[in-house]
Design brief:
The protein has five helices and 15 strands. By secondary structure, the protein is of the alpha/beta class. β6 and β7 form a beta hairpin. The radius of gyration is 17 Å and the shape is globular. The protein starts with 5 loop residues before the first strand and ends with a strand.
């Protein structure tokens, strides 16, 4: 099934080595290795039958390679978010030009202060969107998002986060009613109706896989997750994200897919 035609990515900047990190995965990113991993990521996406728009690195924003956070793209509209991390808030203004190549102004919506929202907290399951209330996404941001989605015939529900940075840090939808879950999401009632694949704790990072047109891209180095995804019947590709992991970033964070 082909669902996505386009992907937007942004090249990592040299300043990424000073990006925000919880320290959960220690070490400072190696910039040259991060560039190579980004090249491999783009190649993997191209194998999934999408065109890839590559935006230039932006040295003003160390975390700007995590292009998923300043925008959310749906089947009917694009939503420019209002990132809750102060050092990242300006990224929303820099993504608008790329989004305008695909959506006219009548179909670009905006989350406005005091609402905050980051795309990493939003998981699309068909026309329903789960949104994590986190340190980066607040109640007002979720209210605005719900209102915007309703305009286009889509729905939204809040998921309270207790441990993770972003919703998709620990739960990701692979289409076909399949969902990868780890940690606090294993027993959440919100996801009771899905076929949940529980990720072992030692591979929790790899809950962040991405489905792109019937292929699932899996972080390299997580054999249990790779086997679990293959057992569901998906084609798989692996990409090393070691340098992005040090900034709490994963596969979904690095692209907008639509």
């Amino acid at each position: 099934m082909k669902k996505f035609n386009h992907v937007i990515v942004r090249r990592p900047c040299k300043a990424m080595v000073e990006g925000i990190t919880s320290g959960l995965y220690p070490g400072k990113p190696d910039y040259e290795l991060a560039l190579k991993e980004h090249d491999d990521y783009i190649e993997a996406l191209k194998k999934c039958d999408v065109d890839v728009t590559v935006l230039e690195a932006d040295e003003r924003y160390p975390d700007s390679c995590f292009v998923e956070d300043p925008a959310l793209i749906t089947r009917a509209c694009a939503i420019i978010t209002n990132p809750g991390a102060e050092s990242r808030n300006g990224e929303k203004d820099e993504i608008i030009g790329a989004v305008r190549k695909f959506f006219d102004d009548d179909h670009i919506e905006y989350i406005k202060a005091p609402g905050t929202l980051e795309g990493g907290d939003v998981m699309m399951c068909g026309d329903h969107f789960y949104v994590g209330r986190s340190a980066r996404t607040n109640e007002e941001g979720i209210r605005q998002l719900t209102e915007i989605l309703a305009k286009y015939g889509m729905t939204c529900s809040e998921v309270k986060l207790e441990e993770v940075l972003h919703l998709k840090t620990g739960v990701n939808y692979l289409e076909d009613n399949n969902m990868l879950v780890s940690g606090e999401f294993v027993d959440k009632e919100d996801f009771a109706s899905y076929n949940k694949v529980v990720i072992p704790e030692e591979e929790a990072y790899a809950a962040n896989c991405i489905w792109v047109n019937d292929t699932v891209i899996v972080p390299e180095g997580y054999p249990a997750v790779l086997k679990a995804v293959q057992d569901l019947g998906y084609k798989t590709l692996t990409v090393d994200t070691s340098e992005y992991r040090k900034l709490d970033g994963g596969l979904s964070c690095l692209s907008l897919r639509f």
